[in-house]
Amino acid sequence: MCGIISYIGKREALPILLDGLYRLEYRGYDSAGVAVVNHDGNVGHIRTTGRVDELASLLAEHPIQGSFGIAHTRWATHGAPSVANAHPHADCKNSVFVAHNGIIENYAHLRAALEREGHKFASETDSEVLAHLIERALVLVGSAGTLDDAVSEALRHVQGTYGIAVVSSRHPEKLVVARRSSPLLLGIGDGEFFAASDSSALLRHTRRIVYLDDNELAVLTPKGYEVRNIRRKPVTKQVELLTGSPADIEKNGHDHFMEKEIHEAPEVLRNAIRGRVLHAEGTAKLSALDASVEKLSQINHIIFLSQGTSYYAGLVGKYMIEELAGIPAEVVYASEFRYAPPPLNEQTLVVAISQSGETADTLEAIREAKRHHVPTLAIVNVVGSSIAREAGMGIYNYAGPEIGVASTKAFISQLAVLSLVAVWFGRQRNLSVSRGREILEELQQLPHKAEKVLSMASRIHTLADGYASHEHFFFLGRKYNWPVALEGALKLKEISYAHAEGYASGEMKHGPIALITSGFPSVVLAPSDSVYEKSVSTIHELKARGGKVLAVATEGNTEIAKIADDVAHIPQTLEILSPILTVIPLQLFAYFIAKKRGCDIDKPRNLAKSVTVE
Ligand code: AGP
């Protein structure tokens, strides 16, 4: 995905656009650019490869005055990172400029047709066709036509997804934005207006926002804004207030957002639980579910849909739901569900898990589920995101903005919410009030217990330094901690670029153990749970072949230090909740190895925070 920020108002646009790009850089960071309409009506158009810093340096040498413009930071889909492929893209006359997030699926056909009409292309991207389509549409709408008329006409030809911002030197004081499946929201200031890919670019300027929905277009001028639908009819939109504060998008003394967000786990747990525990009844208070008790009482099959870390949270959720509520559950990659949905009926509940609420595969999978008339529930962190607004029911994480590309606090929050959902369904069925109370009481202890794990960060830092030179790792876990092993491997892979594989411990003997040689490192999750003895056997099997083992074990367990090379401890907790604690040492382990290796932890190569393209 990419990041778009645009501004129109009374202040100089450039500082606002640059600051917005820095806030959005986690969305994509292989190239960046701006187009600002300066006071004499020309457009200052500067682009560069690399990070926003590179762009800022260039603009310091070539400043552009002007009070409206657009800016973009890119995550390449079509065309390698280069200046020519960086956004904004221009038309043949260098007078229309477009920043785009999404994929134009029929761009090859459109480009061929435009080239036949004499349009000259300067890039390899799909996005550039938008600039030329608008250029052509301006001719069609004629001198009486407006920029927004031309944008609407151009978008009629587009198949695929877009969030776009458009300015033109021939249409002063007008900014046109539009969206289909790629997020775009308006910021309503005092005599100034913004449009951005997400709220992190707006929080410093305004809390008043308007979420655009699919196939909507907005025209912004210094005097106001208007939103229209695909038939060009004005649409009344609700102005909503952003929560959170600018501090949420600062590192607050940490070296990286990821480190800050790992240390937010206790607060994130409090926010996920707050107001959602009914102790007397031994159940959870979840308004989205409470409003659909009758429908949900018929559910006999649950399908979790998600990608990446959120998929691993779904694997934990499956175990929770099946243990507490006895409802068969499965976890399906959203990217697979879209093309091969399992049998569905009205007794199936589809649960989308997504931190960003904008993952294209998960969004499309939810839409596919709705086409099958299946009830849908979304567990989402970003308020007002597309998945949150399109699912039939929703539960927010309230974890605050997660800026680090590697998801950490969101995973912890997802597990806490999933445990509440499992208790809720369980108490609708055969879960006893005492068992419900036991789980909820322990859940409320976890913020404190997470603080205890985090207090050992320096010890894990020392441990991690001893593993930082290895290029291959296994992460192993059983039952509730098998998904945590998968998540631990992903964390290490995506920020340190070391190769890591997560396995169910029992699977080791069926092939992977062939890779164990002297010193081969494995991280084994071995808390004091129902499968602890089996986890100890796994450690023995690894040690017997010369492997090096870091075990995650329950504090007070002195035995495990006699067989593992290193041990990271967590406080005792219920097995069903143990992933919330066992994952924290793995997050820190990955973080410190990546730091030792000098990696770009918050913006790892090739990645983006939310994959809004398919
Ligand atoms: C996790 O560290 C990764 N950044 C990635 O796997 C992420 O979890 C996945 O893209 C899903 O994102 P979502 O939760 O925003 O849908």
Question: What can you tell me about this protein's structure?
Answer:
- The chain is α/β, with parallel strands linked by helices.
- The chain folds into three domains: 2-242, Glutamine Phosphoribosylpyrophosphate, subunit 1, domain 1 (4-Layer Sandwich), CATH 3.60.20; 250-449, Glucose-6-phosphate isomerase like protein, domain 1 (Rossmann fold), CATH 3.40.50; 456-598, Rossmann fold (3-Layer(aba) Sandwich), CATH 3.40.50.
- The protein is built from 19 helices and 26 strands.
- The longest helix is centred in the last third of the chain and has 22 residues, at 433-454.
- The protein is globular and about 80 Å long.
- The N and C termini lie close together (10 Å).
- Bound molecules: 2-deoxy-2-amino glucitol-6-phosphate (AGP).
Search tags:
single chain; alpha/beta; Glutamine Phosphoribosylpyrophosphate, subunit 1, domain 1; Rossmann fold; 8-stranded antiparallel beta sheet; 6-stranded antiparallel beta sheet; 26 strands; binds 2-deoxy-2-amino glucitol-6-phosphate; transferase; repeat; Glutamine--fructose-6-phosphate aminotransferase [isomerizing]; glutamine amidotransferase; GATase_2_dom
